[in-house]
């Protein structure tokens, strides 16, 4: 598999809300969508289980995550970059 085919994975930005598990973080991703018929802006959030190999993030950190193969029953994402640390 070449690197060209791996460029099509989804990336999202979110905030780490839990760091209580080893090598796993829970990241909350906020989204906005417009209703197709009524044009109202819908707000929502999604909580994703994310793989963090080095346990380098803490609660409150802003991170960029990328879709990956299934790593466990719930983990389908991994952290690729820490955008800002919580001070």
Number of strands: 5
Instruction: Give the neighbour order of strands across the main sheet.
Output: 1-2-3-5-4
What is the radius of gyration? Answer: 15 Å
Which of globular, elongated, flat, extended, rod-shaped describes the shape? globular
Q: Can you summarize the main beta sheet?
A: 5 strands, mixed, barrel
Descriptive notes:
- With 87 residues, the chain is mainly β.
- The protein is built from no helices and five strands.
- It has strands at 11-21, 24-34, 41-51, 62-67, 77-84.
- A five-stranded mixed β-barrel has the order 1-2-3-5-4.
- Strand 1 and strand 2 (24-34) form a beta hairpin.
- The mean pLDDT is 93.
Topology, pairings included?
Elements: E1 11-21, E2 24-34, E3 41-51, E4 62-67, E5 77-84
Parallel strand pairs: 3-5
Antiparallel strand pairs: 1-2, 1-4, 2-3, 4-5
Overview features:
87 residues, five-stranded mixed β-barrel
Short description:
This protein has about 90 residues and is mainly β. The chain has no helices and five strands. The termini are far apart.
């Amino acid at each position: 598999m070449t690197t060209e085919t791996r460029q099509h994975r989804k990336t999202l930005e979110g905030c780490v809300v839990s760091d209580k598990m080893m090598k796993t973080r829970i990241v909350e991703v906020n989204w906005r969508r417009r209703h197709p018929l009524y044009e109202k802006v819908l707000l929502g959030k999604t909580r994703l289980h994310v793989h963090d190999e080095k346990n380098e993030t803490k609660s409150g950190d802003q991170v960029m995550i990328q879709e990956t193969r299934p790593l466990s029953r719930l983990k389908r994402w991994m952290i690729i970059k820490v955008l800002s640390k919580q001070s």
